[in-house]
Amino acid sequence: MGSCTVDLRSVEVTTPQVVIDALAVMGSVTVVVPEGIDVELAGLAFMGSKRFRVRDVPSAPGSPRLRVRAWAVMGSVTVVSRPPPRGKRARSSLRR
Asked: Whole-prediction pTM value?
């Protein structure tokens, strides 16, 4: 019954795949990813929604695959891509 934003734009990952389980019950979860990574959104929305708003750009070489498993019950799970935060270098974004 609230909201949560997980911003992954400044995260460094050393594994080939990252899995996030997002559960929203009468609230919202927003996952912010850097542009140019391979993202998959799966799961179930019951009386809610799951949205995928990622720019269609080629995946960066060596970037991991991000899997978001969404469960939304009267809530929403949204995956959105955005440019790197101001003052941050692009290389620190989810790239190996």
From this structure: 0.84
